[in-house]
Design goal:
The protein is mostly helical and 559 residues long. It contains 24 helices and 2 strands.
Length: 559
Amino acid sequence: MSTALLLVLAIVLLLLAYFTYGRLVSRWLGVDPSRRTPAHELRDGIDYVPARRSVLLGHHFASIAGAAPIIGPVTAIAYGWGPVFLWIVVGGIFLGAVHDLSSLVASIRHRGRSIGEVVEAHLGYAGRVLFLIFSWTALILVIAAFAIVVARTFQEVPEAATASLFFIVLALAFGGAIYGLKAPFVPSTVVGVLLLFGGIWLGHVLPLRLPVDAWLWILFAYVFAASVLPVHLLLQPRDYLNSFLLYAVLLLGVLGVCVANPEIQAPAFTSLRTEDLGWLFPMLFVTVACGAISGFHSLVSSGTTAKQLDREADAQFVGYGAMLVESLLAVLALVAVAWLPAGEYAAFMAKGTSNPVAAFSSGLGRLLGELGLPAAGAKSFVALAVSAFALTSLDTATRLARFAFQEFFAPRRRAAEEGAPAPRLPLLAQNRYLATLISVAVAASLAYSGSLGQLWPVFGSANQLLAALALLAVSVWLAHRARRNFFVVAPMLVMFAVTLSSLGLLAWQNLLGQGQNVVLGVTAVLLLGVALVLAALAFSALFGQRKALSIAAREQPSR
């Protein structure tokens, strides 16, 4: 099959979905352009800062993308390109984009707080505590893992290290110019993007070589600063400018595929089970998360993005639109390796030395060569873009961990509404420096301990469980507002089926099967327990709501 045909088909389907299903979902969620958003009502110059929708799209897209929408599809092609393509497109349209948009809207209707606040409002305080503990733990894993990935990338590709440090300085200058000096936005963006690509040249001229441990110290210091500084000075402008790197990769990649148009070499389908990944269900739906649906996105939507949304009318553009762009990136990653000869792909993915990013960079770099670009330079450019986005996910995850930590120690929602008492531990709830320091210290200890490799295999299931829990919270919220919620309930049930199955398999394999790993098995059992408790609370709330509505309908006098 033609690679260009497959890519164009994905583009058409995703565009059609944005202008049809995306608008329907926005209407069902009750998006109201006339309502003031938390970015205006609670504006504090630190976290709550209204942003242009183009800037917010760049921040949101850069935060949710990272390297995951590349790694997942490249790895899962072991099942064949057919199941992966279908899951990316169908999952992105009907699950992932709905999940991201509904999480964003639910958050702005709860003062820009996390999904944990939505859980407390509709499932009770115990549900909030469980959700925030689970979210914070998952984010700590993300911070530790991405710090290791970026540090190793910087050691192996010192040109990317120099360019990334330059991007940070450029972001500070851009944020200061736009918000401090009130510089005109469009000319500043043009200059910023030109300097951004100039940073790539600077990296090749002055590569910075340091060991992994040194890079880890630098990265943890950077993410601490990114978490506590006002969002419009570093995090938002860095993500916005970096998004142009990925836009360039997408645009050049689509052009390269359409011009070269090689035939797909990978089989459309291989088998229901592979030696490395396991059964197609549920492991395909856990392996390919970003690009189809990812629970991490709900933390971004209800974390940094909800606090910067200028108008509710921008929610579809940012929430639904960014997810579909990520789905396109995932399809591009699939196509970029699907045309490689089987032996070459197998060499990239050999057990013990698996490198999906290198496979993607090599495949796409050679396709870009058809546009007249040097293949070696194009490969380096793609690798740099991927590493830059891993860093954006890292700094956003740190800020989100700080939010989750502070919310955990904040007063109960009902008590706060009645008398606004002080938090239980005010220093932990209100001091962003201390909350960030604790989060970064725990992540750093995990990164340096070497135990991350034991826990990371369960993170894919935990991430998708987070998506199921976010959809569950939104379902209950919509039910309490007497709004239709079938478009959220259906994805929720799918994700619960996926995650409970995958966690059950992990628990069985690591506690009772061969190659036992007690740490993984116990972690899987604990996650299963959290999921079942929250699901029980949710279904109880849904049943109670329907029962109350039924009683009210019976008691209403007939006309």
